[in-house]
Amino acid sequence: MAEAFEVQIAEAVVAELNGTGPSGGWLKAFTAEFDWLAVYQDDDERLETLRVDVVPDTIANESLDRARSRFDYGVEIVIQKRISFQDRAAARDEMKALAKFAEQIHDYYLDNHELASLTGYRVLKADREQVHDLDALYAQHVWGTVITLGVRGYR
What we know:
With 155 residues, the protein is α+β, with helices and mostly antiparallel strands.
Protein backbone atom coordinates (compact mmCIF):
# COMPACT_ATOMS: atom_id res chain seq x y z
CA MET A 1 0.00 0.00 0.00
CA ALA A 2 1.30 3.45 -0.90
CA GLU A 3 1.99 6.02 1.79
CA ALA A 4 -0.47 8.87 2.41
CA PHE A 5 0.14 11.78 0.03
CA GLU A 6 1.24 14.07 2.87
CA VAL A 7 3.94 11.52 3.74
CA GLN A 8 4.97 11.15 0.09
CA ILE A 9 5.31 14.93 -0.24
CA ALA A 10 7.38 15.25 2.96
CA GLU A 11 9.58 12.35 1.83
CA ALA A 12 10.04 14.05 -1.58
CA VAL A 13 11.24 17.20 0.23
CA VAL A 14 13.62 15.06 2.33
CA ALA A 15 15.00 13.53 -0.87
CA GLU A 16 15.57 16.98 -2.39
CA LEU A 17 17.28 18.30 0.73
CA ASN A 18 19.52 15.23 0.90
CA GLY A 19 20.32 15.53 -2.81
CA THR A 20 22.70 17.91 -4.47
CA GLY A 21 20.72 21.02 -3.59
CA PRO A 22 21.55 24.34 -5.23
CA SER A 23 24.56 24.74 -7.50
CA GLY A 24 27.57 24.84 -5.25
CA GLY A 25 25.83 22.65 -2.66
CA TRP A 26 24.40 23.43 0.74
CA LEU A 27 26.26 25.74 3.12
CA LYS A 28 26.09 23.21 5.96
CA ALA A 29 26.43 19.44 6.13
CA PHE A 30 23.24 17.71 7.28
CA THR A 31 20.91 14.80 6.72
CA ALA A 32 17.24 15.72 6.52
CA GLU A 33 14.77 13.25 8.04
CA PHE A 34 11.00 12.76 7.92
CA ASP A 35 9.27 13.09 11.28
CA TRP A 36 5.82 13.76 12.69
CA LEU A 37 7.13 15.96 15.50
CA ALA A 38 10.44 17.82 15.56
CA VAL A 39 10.61 18.34 19.32
CA TYR A 40 13.54 17.13 21.41
CA GLN A 41 14.18 16.92 25.14
CA ASP A 42 16.47 19.50 26.73
CA ASP A 43 19.29 16.95 27.10
CA ASP A 44 18.86 15.32 23.68
CA GLU A 45 22.33 14.84 22.21
CA ARG A 46 20.95 14.89 18.66
CA LEU A 47 20.75 18.69 18.92
CA GLU A 48 24.52 18.92 19.30
CA THR A 49 24.65 18.52 15.50
CA LEU A 50 22.49 20.27 12.94
CA ARG A 51 18.96 18.81 12.75
CA VAL A 52 16.78 19.23 9.67
CA ASP A 53 13.38 17.57 10.05
CA VAL A 54 10.58 17.59 7.49
CA VAL A 55 7.09 17.44 9.00
CA PRO A 56 3.71 17.22 7.21
CA ASP A 57 1.51 20.03 8.50
CA THR A 58 -1.72 20.87 6.64
CA ILE A 59 -4.01 19.70 3.85
CA ALA A 60 -6.66 21.74 2.04
CA ASN A 61 -8.56 20.61 -1.01
CA GLU A 62 -11.03 21.90 -3.57
CA SER A 63 -13.14 19.71 -5.84
CA LEU A 64 -12.67 20.78 -9.45
CA ASP A 65 -15.11 18.30 -10.95
CA ARG A 66 -16.43 14.83 -10.19
CA ALA A 67 -13.13 13.15 -11.04
CA ARG A 68 -10.48 15.62 -9.92
CA SER A 69 -9.54 17.74 -6.93
CA ARG A 70 -6.79 20.25 -6.17
CA PHE A 71 -4.82 19.61 -2.98
CA ASP A 72 -2.66 22.14 -1.16
CA TYR A 73 -0.27 20.67 1.39
CA GLY A 74 1.74 22.47 4.05
CA VAL A 75 5.12 20.97 4.91
CA GLU A 76 7.48 22.31 7.56
CA ILE A 77 11.25 22.18 7.33
CA VAL A 78 12.45 22.50 10.93
CA ILE A 79 16.10 23.48 11.43
CA GLN A 80 17.59 23.21 14.94
CA LYS A 81 21.00 23.25 16.59
CA ARG A 82 22.12 23.62 20.21
CA ILE A 83 24.39 26.62 20.70
CA SER A 84 27.17 26.87 23.27
CA PHE A 85 27.36 30.34 24.77
CA GLN A 86 30.73 29.82 26.48
CA ASP A 87 32.25 32.00 23.76
CA ARG A 88 29.67 34.66 22.86
CA ALA A 89 31.45 35.75 19.67
CA ALA A 90 31.62 32.15 18.43
CA ALA A 91 27.93 31.67 19.31
CA ARG A 92 26.99 34.80 17.32
CA ASP A 93 29.00 33.60 14.34
CA GLU A 94 27.42 30.15 14.48
CA MET A 95 23.90 31.64 14.59
CA LYS A 96 24.72 33.93 11.65
CA ALA A 97 25.86 30.88 9.67
CA LEU A 98 22.67 29.00 10.61
CA ALA A 99 20.55 31.97 9.52
CA LYS A 100 22.35 32.05 6.15
CA PHE A 101 21.82 28.30 5.77
CA ALA A 102 18.10 28.67 6.53
CA GLU A 103 17.92 31.51 3.99
CA GLN A 104 19.56 29.23 1.41
CA ILE A 105 16.94 26.50 1.93
CA HIS A 106 14.15 29.09 1.88
CA ASP A 107 15.43 30.59 -1.37
CA TYR A 108 15.82 27.13 -2.95
CA TYR A 109 12.06 26.64 -2.65
CA LEU A 110 11.04 30.03 -4.07
CA ASP A 111 11.31 28.99 -7.72
CA ASN A 112 7.93 27.22 -8.09
CA HIS A 113 9.59 23.92 -9.04
CA GLU A 114 8.05 20.48 -9.25
CA LEU A 115 9.25 18.06 -6.57
CA ALA A 116 11.88 15.90 -8.24
CA SER A 117 10.57 12.56 -6.96
CA LEU A 118 6.83 13.33 -7.03
CA THR A 119 5.59 14.23 -10.49
CA GLY A 120 2.75 16.72 -10.61
CA TYR A 121 3.37 18.26 -7.18
CA ARG A 122 4.78 21.77 -7.29
CA VAL A 123 6.17 23.98 -4.50
CA LEU A 124 4.14 27.19 -4.77
CA LYS A 125 5.51 29.07 -1.79
CA ALA A 126 8.06 29.06 0.99
CA ASP A 127 7.56 31.14 4.14
CA ARG A 128 9.83 31.74 7.11
CA GLU A 129 7.65 33.81 9.40
CA GLN A 130 9.90 33.70 12.45
CA VAL A 131 13.63 34.28 11.98
CA HIS A 132 14.36 32.07 14.98
CA ASP A 133 12.62 30.65 18.04
CA LEU A 134 13.69 33.08 20.76
CA ASP A 135 12.00 31.07 23.55
CA ALA A 136 13.95 27.91 22.66
CA LEU A 137 17.16 29.92 22.42
CA TYR A 138 16.66 31.35 25.93
CA ALA A 139 15.36 28.19 27.59
CA GLN A 140 17.35 25.43 25.88
CA HIS A 141 20.12 27.27 24.00
CA VAL A 142 18.67 25.83 20.78
CA TRP A 143 18.66 27.99 17.65
CA GLY A 144 15.72 26.99 15.52
CA THR A 145 13.64 28.18 12.60
CA VAL A 146 10.81 26.79 10.49
CA ILE A 147 10.38 27.10 6.73
CA THR A 148 6.83 26.31 5.67
CA LEU A 149 6.34 25.09 2.12
CA GLY A 150 3.08 25.20 0.19
CA VAL A 151 2.85 22.27 -2.25
CA ARG A 152 0.04 21.84 -4.76
CA GLY A 153 -1.02 18.76 -6.68
CA TYR A 154 -4.07 17.29 -8.37
CA ARG A 155 -5.68 13.90 -8.07
